Description:
With 608 residues, the protein is an alpha/beta fold. The chain has helices spanning 3-49, 52-97, 139-149, 155-168, 172-183, 190-201, 210-231, 240-266, 275-283, 290-298, 306-320, 327-336, 338-379, 433-449, 481-498, 516-532, 550-555, 590-596, and strands at 387-388, 394-399, 412-416, 422-427, 457-460, 463-468, 502-508, 536-541, 556-561, 563-568, 571-576, 581-582. The chain has 3 domains: 1-97; 191-363, no CATH class; 387-596, Rossmann fold (3-Layer(aba) Sandwich). The protein is built from 18 helices and 12 strands. The strands form 3 sheets. The protein has a 6-stranded mixed sheet, sandwiched between helices. A 4-stranded mixed sheet has the order 1-5-2-3, with helices on one face.
Amino acid sequence: MTPLDKYETRAREFAARAAAAGARADLVAHARLASFLLALGAGVMAEQTGAAAWRILAAVLLASFLVLVVVHRRLRRQQHWLEAHEAVNREGIARLRRDWSQLPRLPAPAGVHRHAYAGDLQLFGSPGLSQLLNPPATPAGQSILTQWLLGTEDVGAIEARQAGVRSLRDRLDYRDALTVLARDTARVSVSELEQFLSWAESSSAWQNGRFMRVLAIGLPAATFALIFAQAFGLVHRAWWLLGVLAAILVTARWQRSIHSVFRRAFAREGVLRAYPQLFAHASNLPTDDPRLARYASELTADQVPAARHFARLERIMRFADVRHSGTLHFIVQVFTLWDFHVAAALEQWQKQAGSAARRWFHALGEIEATCSLAALAHDHPDWPFPRFTTEPVFRAAQIGHPMIPDANRVHNDIEVGPPGTFVLITGSNMSGKSTLLRAIGANVVLAQAGAPVCAESLTLPRVALYTSVNIQDSLVDGVSLFMAELQRMRTIVEAAARGERFCMYLLDEILHGTNSAERRIAVRSVLAHLLAAGAIGAITTHDLALADDPLIDAAARKIHFSETVTETPEGVKMSFDYRARPGLATSTNALTLMRLVGIEPASPPSDG
């Protein structure tokens, strides 16, 4: 079965099972209502006749009603689970069809427009390269996948990640369930998770509050002892009211600080409710890959696994939610000092598990982000994993842009490097120059994230990637287009000069915000710096005169794209094959494109 066949089959199966569960839930709902009404009727008959049989029947029917309530709830949960699995598999179909509007997005990090390549290569948003990866739903997973796409790892870490991706590529059931469970946590924002982790790692205000713990036990015990004493005639006054008054005073003194701790720990109601199941599923990782096995063991390494710690925390959270119940909370609080007991339980959890919480979330994020890359590997089994070398050459056979649908994608061979050379791409408008640059960049990003690449084969060194493909001016910052391009060029030249690792640049029609003569001088200067620093890269241009410069001519590996123009009865038709060919372009098409859109070029002025 092809990946598309698998997704379509699984989606149909989950839809059928969800419909069956929904139908059973509807039947149980009707039976629940009937049992309640019959129990009510039997109760009325028991009241009127006093017959024991009616009372027994009413009790049986009421018990049946309660059982059916539980069964109905379970069936609805099962229906939701199956519907969520259906949705995940329909997203797999949408990924293969590049139906961007149906796919989740990976949130863009702050300042992404200033990143070396993220904005130019459309990593985030929609349409975005990250949408092909089934982006993680948890803040931890999103953060880690973002780091991988922005390229911060060495070759050893990338190759280890590739092994994990291979091991999870065909684990559809595990990955689907992880996605469904993770999306149940989507209400938790990055800031809320960080707030929780900061609390977990902090020192409790009650660490040395032995007096408060004794008071929380002793005061309610004394109050209830006095209530029983009055009830049995041992005392003749309501001395227990003094205990209630003391509880009110103690609550007034400490309640604000205790509720502040609750807000820090839980951010808002229900935010950690889905994590126990998520941690439990993540720890049952079906792989023997050492890296992933290490992260799975992180979740079960302690005597009490992360899932059980968070299940206990979720129970404490429900107890803390009593504070939202108004009058009921006041009554419970003044007789039991309820909030003090919940705070003590929360402090105990913090001591036992707080220092490990960040480590658990990191392990979960690593597993979830690896599953995202594994989704791409599953969807495109013909895409290979790249091979990293120390040779400073990017060498790709039949590379294509991963965001273009399979039926429309055109592949080309390309070699970038070694140092002292660059690729000069020329050609007419719309012929494929910029797409080739983006294809190179997108595949470098995938390769260095640990994912397979859209090519027949790819070898490359670990590179620091820089692009200038979609530079824009900024009215807010008061930066013109030419100045914005110059600032990006300075960033690239400085990065190449630092020589931290191989610098790879992809420049599309650079410095086009000025006149041709000055642009040629500026482009020559930029290329001279990059060539001298040993950087490798590719540039596109419409300006064929650039190749006349001796420096550029000597260092450039020239390729071009072309078009086919045909005269038909309906007018001029233009077509492109998007195939890269050796040498400089020999034609331009700007005037032809003007005619195609209905604008007739003006004739040049005559000498007369």
